[in-house]
Amino acid sequence: MRIIAGAAKGMLLAVPRSGVRPTADRIREAIFSSLGERVIGATVLDLFAGTGALGLEAASRGAASVTFVEQSRVALTSLQKNLETFRKNRNVSCELMIMRADAFAQLRKVAGAGEKFSLIFADPPYGNAAQSLLDNSVLPGLLADGGLFVLESAKRDALSVPASSQLIRESVYGDTRVSFLAQHEATAESGN
Fold first, then answer.
1. Closest C-alpha to 153, from 133, 139, 137
2. CA-to-CA distance for 153 and 161, rounded, in angstroms?
3. Torsion angle of the four alpha carbons 110, 111, 112, 114, in this order, in degrees rounded to the nearest 10
4. In the 8-state DSSP scheme, what is residue 162?
5. CB-count burial class (<10 Å; 0-12, 13-18, 19+) for 160
6. How many Å apart are CA 172 and CA 106, to the nearest integer?
7. What is the DSSP string of 79-114?
8. What pLDDT does 19 receive?
9. Contacts of residue 103, Cβ cutoff 8 Å, sequence gap at least 6
10. In this structure, how many other beta carbons lie within 10 angstroms of the beta carbon of residue 99?
11. Best CA proximity match to 148, nearest among 173, 124, 121, 125
């Protein structure tokens, strides 16, 4: 695995032998091609960060800040190595922060602090975690105006988009579905 484009293009990522399912290079390339210029200057939240591949790709492409949320000790070891390599070998001015926490618990803390993000990435374990994120009432409120939530899930998992969110785009790559969601306009207008 490597960083695909930007200031850190070609940087190899440390990946643990087990316990994580990193986003494949071709899927990351497709995600970031879809996002285009939206990444530049973005404030990013990377939930279930694993190796940090999504957040570091955003940082390499010009994001202003990336907050990584990961609970697994094995994944955190690789994530910390990747951040050290990224900081040492690249001239990037992105603010990078790791939070060792359960993603769902961290959403409540971040919401309580009033933080907003222009991009939220989530690559949760396949199963019901993706739907649980979609159903989380806190998540839409964490998106800044015009922000996007990019969710990876298993193609076989049927997802139901709640009224608070609007499905902008969905693509399937092998066994992986990538959904791009925004805060539903009616929800954004009411301030919820």
1. 133
2. 13
3. 90
4. -
5. exposed
6. 28
7. HHHHHHHHHHH-----EEEEEES-HHHHHHHHHHTT
8. 66
9. 47, 48, 69, 71, 122, 124, 133
10. 19
11. 121
What is residue 33's three-state secondary structure?
helix
| Inter-helix orientation angle 73-89/53-60, to 10° | 20
Q: Does residue 159 contact residue 130 with C-beta atoms inside 8 Å?
A: yes
SS3 174: coil
pLDDT by 10s per residue, the chain, length 192: 899 999 899 999 998 877 677 778 899 999 999 999 999 999 999 999 999 999 999 999 999 999 999 999 999 999 999 999 998 876 778 899 999 999 998 898 888 888 899 999 999 987 788 999 999 988 888 999 999 999 999 999 888 998 888 999 999 999 999 999 998 664 444 444
Query: Residue 2: which of 13, 14, 17, 15 has the closest Cα?
Result: 13
| Eight-state DSSP code of residue 17 | S
C-alpha span between 110 and 97 (Å, rounded)? 13
Are 157 and 141 within 8 A, CB to CB? no
Which H, E and C letters describe 117-145, residue by residue?
A: EEEEEECCCCCCHHHHHHHCCCHHHHEEE
